[in-house]
From TrEMBL:
<dbReference type="Pfam" id="PF01565">
    <property type="entry name" value="FAD_binding_4"/>
</dbReference>
<feature type="signal peptide">
    <location>
        <begin position="1"/>
        <end position="20"/>
    </location>
</feature>
<dbReference type="GO" id="GO:0016491">
    <property type="term" value="F:oxidoreductase activity"/>
</dbReference>
<dbReference type="InterPro" id="IPR050432">
    <property type="entry name" value="FAD-linked_Oxidoreductases_BP"/>
</dbReference>
<dbReference type="InterPro" id="IPR016169">
    <property type="entry name" value="FAD-bd_PCMH_sub2"/>
</dbReference>
<dbReference type="Pfam" id="PF08031">
    <property type="entry name" value="BBE"/>
</dbReference>
<feature type="domain" description="FAD-binding PCMH-type">
    <location>
        <begin position="131"/>
        <end position="318"/>
    </location>
</feature>
<protein>
    <submittedName>
        <fullName>6-hydroxy-D-nicotine oxidase</fullName>
    </submittedName>
</protein>
<dbReference type="InterPro" id="IPR016166">
    <property type="entry name" value="FAD-bd_PCMH"/>
</dbReference>
<comment type="similarity">
    <text>Belongs to the oxygen-dependent FAD-linked oxidoreductase family.</text>
</comment>
<dbReference type="InterPro" id="IPR036318">
    <property type="entry name" value="FAD-bd_PCMH-like_sf"/>
</dbReference>
<keyword id="KW-0560">Oxidoreductase</keyword>
<dbReference type="InterPro" id="IPR012951">
    <property type="entry name" value="BBE"/>
</dbReference>
<dbReference type="InterPro" id="IPR006094">
    <property type="entry name" value="Oxid_FAD_bind_N"/>
</dbReference>
<keyword id="KW-0732">Signal</keyword>
<dbReference type="GO" id="GO:0071949">
    <property type="term" value="F:FAD binding"/>
</dbReference>
Length: 599
């Protein structure tokens, strides 16, 4: 007890002396490349809390604070962590890690591991060479495995008062490394799994239909599984990917999925959020209480305005649905010209698919177009076959062989979801970007867009056939023509949100990484924008290093209001995620390590 009190007094004095505002610590001065910065506090800095202070936090969070050791360390003799070196070799654990290393479900259940590893720096990998090095890379130093709302609050307060970089890690799906950060305190929200349905939503906002309140850690598939079990069965807008969280980065970025053409973004369907603010307050944000924060949380950018503790979404009656698949790959065609003609024909029908209310998920890799699935919510198999007939007739007329299942009808959308959507494998060291092609651009310039796709697959002589694309045909303006969320209004004329990925070897040097980052931002991103000038980019699935990200992610009607909201709710930068509103002055310097504000 005595120690605890001393620690409290100690930390109180620390931030008393550190800053004019007793509750917000001062940034640490630093100069890099001739520029003056004020940085977050890191291990080795004088301001770094001593062990008593960390222990006090640990007590507040019921012992749920840990010094993070990556699971891969089990394959290595030593883990050379920020706080010291420890012996870590454990053959059995190493075997488990190695066997599950690309399992989406296993990865999301880990404390800090990310599905897309580029931004972790890949400095501790499963191996049979136990003497190879294992260091932390860009993972956080401390892990706070929150199980209560008070733990999240304690983490936010601690980070704010001690000027520590704060990161929230939910499912670890982030493509651009936003759920990790060098030297950070990472709050893991995976334990928050409550789900509660109501038949009639009884709160402000002028909506009185069905709703579901979910805790921060709930993932798509379990939510849909419980939704369909309601009487009568209902459904919710979630991602196509079964393990993406719903209330975390997904809805805060907008959140699209198989029902988006019919029902809009997840953000369009959010009714209320309970959050911990940067000041450590537990508040509700909805149409009546804190409406500016409510609006910003609906697509204004992940980890930018508050930590979401729970969120409420509209539910919709489950409906009979139809699905279909189609493949064109080297089993069917080996002539590249013919293959790309197949892709061109497919994409020339994108507008007709979304205009018929469909959602389509597909991948393009060298000599493989895999369309799995077409989703026709609230439509029959015969209806879907009729929509697809002109497209298939065009393929046949062009002499392009393909493999296709006739449309299949399902009693519910959930049955289709389980049958046709698959877990994806994690661990890919890739750089990701994406662009939304509007209906107008596809109507005007489909051939130009296909030329851009070819470039994304083979962007340079040394990268021929190295690209990998994932497309989603949907139009968020089909069922919800006017945005009610902080999403880019251009999405209301969307037809294809397509991701383009480039591999980066895990052992790449800093120079090699900079080269690929440059290729993506300054060649591919620009090519996509030039061929689809009426499109925009989706913050969760785009290159954070692109120029004019404010315009591409939100546009001139939305961004200024988001900036204002950020300044109001997080004036001191307690939260940070790259290329989110108000981060213009913030930069991660010194080769991906220190988070600092330009002075
Ligand atoms: C395989 C795969 C498939 C995908 N499919 C889709 C899709 O169909 N539709 C779609 O829209 N997107 C999709 N995404 C992108 C997805 O929306 C983003 O990766 C999103 O950031 C995931 O959010 P998360 O909370 O689950 O993940 P995390 O990586 O844990 O977190 C992502 C970001 O959100 C922040 N965050 C997490 N929880 C909270 C919280 N409670 N409060 C405040 N901030 C929080 C984190 O700090 C981080 O900045 C996919 C991604 C992958 C890898
Ligand atoms: C926090 O407390 C728990 C339980 O006492 C302990 O196991 C853990 O090691 C502590 N964490 C730190 C960082 O000291
Ligand atoms: C991890 O791998 C082992 C061995 O292959 C397997 O038995 C186990 O089920 C996997 N665990 C998870 C959570 O996937
Ligand atoms: C890690 O620490 C061990 C033990 O001190 C040392 O032998 C090894 O060289 C260190 N490795 C790295 C990568 O720093
Ligand atoms: C990150 O990786 C690069 C190699 O690409 C390496 O030079 C650098 O030291 C690493 N940084 C950290 C913090 O792991
Ligand atoms: C082509 O697609 C079919 C259908 O999925 C699959 O059975 C076949 O293995 C694929 N061929 C190649 C070469 O990928
Ligand atoms: C590939 O197909 C195109 C278009 O049909 C044709 O012009 C070309 O000759 C074919 N190439 C080969 C090598 O068969
Ligand atoms: C389903 O389709 C019918 C007929 O087209 C329409 O009236 C109804 O509103 C649709 N329901 C949903 C939930 O989309
Ligand atoms: C990375 O590994 C590959 C394959 O082992 C090797 O060819 C390449 O030279 C390595 N690159 C660097 C920068 O070490």
């Amino acid at each position: 007890m005595k120690l605890f009190i001393t620690a409290l007094i100690g930390s109180f004095l620390l931030y008393q002396t550190a800053s004019a505002n007793p509750d917000t610590a001062q940034l640490v001065p630093r100069t890099w490349n001739g520029q003056k910065y004020g940085c977050k506090c890191y291990f080795g800095d004088q301001c770094w809390p001593d062990s008593r202070t960390w222990n006090a936090l640990n007590t507040t969070v019921d012992g749920n604070l840990a010094v993070y050791v990556p699971p891969e360390a089990a394959c290595h003799t030593f883990f050379n962590g920020t706080l010291g070196t420890i012996s870590t070799y454990d053959q059995a654990k190493c075997d488990t890690v190695t066997a599950n290393y690309s399992s989406e479900k296993w990865i999301t259940d880990q404390d800090m591991l990310l599905l897309w590893r580029y931004w972790t720096n890949s400095t501790c990998l499963p191996t049979t060479e136990s003497s190879s090095p294992c260091t932390l890379g860009y993972y956080g130093v401390y892990l706070l495995k929150a199980t209560k709302i008070a733990h999240i609050k304690a983490g936010v307060d601690f980070a704010r008062r001690n000027n520590i970089r704060l990161v929230v890690r939910n499912s670890g799906h982030d493509f651009v490394g936003r759920s990790t950060g060098w030297g950070a305190l990472v709050i893991n929200t995976h334990s928050f799994q409550d789900i509660k349905f109501v038949d009639k939503w009884d709160a402000p906002g002028g909506y009185s239909g069905g709703a579901v309140t979910i805790a921060a850690g709930v993932q798509g598939r379990p939510l849909l599984r419980q939704a369909v079990a309601q009487k009568p069965p209902v459904t919710v807008v979630t991602g196509e990917c079964p393990t993406v969280g719903v209330a975390g980065g997904y809805v805060q970025g907008g959140g699209h999925g198989p029902l988006t053409t019919q029902l809009g973004f997840a953000a369009d369907n959010a009714l209320s959020f309970d959050v911990i603010t940067a000041d450590g307050e537990y508040v509700t944000a909805n149409a009546k209480e804190n409406p500016d924060l409510f609006w910003a949380l609906k697509g204004g950018g992940p980890a930018a305005f508050a930590v979401v503790v729970s969120a409420t979404f509209k539910t919709f009656p489950e409906m009979r649905s139809a699905g279909a698949t189609l493949y064109i790959n080297s089993t069917h065609v080996t002539n590249e010209t013919l293959y790309w003609e197949g892709v061109r024909i497919f994409h020339s029908h994108a507008n007709s698919f979304v205009d018929a209310g469909l959602y389509v998920y597909f991948t393009i890799t060298p000599l493989t177009l895999r369309v799995r699935p077409w989703v026709a919510f609230n439509q029959t198999a015969a209806g879907l076959d009729a929509i697809l007939a002109p497209f298939k007739a065009d393929l046949t007329a062009a002499g392009i062989p393909f493999e296709n299942t006739p449309a299949k009808e399902y009693t519910t959308f959930f049955d289709l979801y389980i049958d046709l959507f698959e877990d994806e494998s994690g661990g890919t060291p890739m750089l990701t970007s994406g662009w939304m092609f509007s209906r107008q651009d596809i109507a005007a310039n489909n051939d130009g867009i296909i030329t851009a796709f070819k470039k994304a697959i083979s962007p340079r002589e040394d990268l021929v056939n190295k690209g990998y694309m994932v497309g989603h045909l949907w139009n968020a303006g089909y069922g919800v023509p006017v945005p009610n969320s902080a999403t880019n209004p251009r999405f209301r004329d969307a037809a294809n949100l397509i991701l383009y990925n480039l591999p980066v070897p895990t052992n790449a040097t800093l120079e090699q990484k900079a080269d690929i980052e440059d290729l993506l931002a300054n060649t591919l991103d620009r090519t996509m924008r030039a061929t689809g000038p009426k499109g925009c980019a989706y913050i969760n699935e785009a290159d954070p290093l692109q120029e004019n990200w404010q315009d591409h992610f939100w546009g001139p009607d939305v961004y200024p209001k988001l900036l204002e909201t950020r300044k109001k709710w997080d004036p001191h930068g307690v939260f940070y995620a790259i290329s989110t509103p108000g981060t213009e002055d913030w930069e991660v310097i010194e080769y991906g390590t220190r988070l600092c504000k330009k002075l």
